[in-house]
Amino acid sequence: MSFLRNTALAATLLLTSLATQAQKAAVKPAKAATAASPAATNALLWEITGKGLAAPSYVYGTVHLICPTDLVVTEPVKQSFGKAKQVVLELDMDSPTMMQEMQASMMMNGGQNLQQLLSPTDYTSVGKYLQSKAGVPIDRVGTLKPFILSSMLYPALLGCAPASYEATFVQMAQEQKKEVLGLETVQQQMGFFEKIPYKAQGQMLVDMVNKEAEARQEVQQMVTLYKAQNVEELRNMTTKSLFGFQEYEDVLVNSRNQSWIGSITKMAATQPTFFAVGAAHLGGPKGVLALLRQEGYQVRPLR
Fold this sequence. Notes:
Elements (H helix, E strand, L loop, with lengths): L2 H13 L3 H4 L22 E5 L7 E6 L12 H9 L2 E4 L8 H7 L9 H4 L2 H15 L3 H4 L4 H6 L2 H5 L6 H11 L3 E4 L3 H9 L3 H13 L1 H16 L3 H6 L12 H22 L2 E6 L9 H7 L3 E5 L1
Parallel strand pairs: 2-5, 3-4, 3-5
Antiparallel strand pairs: 1-2, 1-6
Helix pairs in contact: 6-12
């Protein structure tokens, strides 16, 4: 596989949800359940019923990059997946054109490059880090969007060659001959990040390099929250990460949640569906679970 395909794959695994940023979070004491926090029960798998659905559908919260030893497909997930007739991810990850679409959207517009965005000192620091941790010369990737470059740092921060729940579900769907669909197109998802200035993306990349210890700690604490199935804390921490885009939360998280609901309800009404989205999209008053309840559906945790 070529270098560009490796880069595209890393970006794809991250771009399947903003939760790559949203789920990186420092562990804080859990807040008491309130009416605005409907997902207070710790669970990643939720059953959707009611409002005339002939059969239940399911929504599962993923983390897009995780060490293989921490990737666990539980028996309830297997059973729910088996009952579903189709699988819906944030992106249609078994599309034969997805990689080409990703590659076409990875470069900065207007001929910009990383050297123009960063100070000489920061450019040197990022270059050394990319070379030592990812084996990538910075002059070969300097025209890539900075958040794409950030994705290449995650194996070093996780301390492993990451696995992906999305890739796992695609494989399961193929084995069970289920159709895989997406809630968004590659162009739509990349478009959300186009609303973040390259300068801000570049600063996040610099912060991840210069504050590696803090970034590594956040990633590991995210994994702890995820393994505890604490979707509320994952959501609560989206505004507290040292390395996120908090000022763009409505664009990158809340508005996407709202736009997904129409598709989720239509697909669930057609046939039983297994939905898988970033876990940080589930909780909170503007999360997928709360929005489904507002639409009149019953949503209950399955453990």
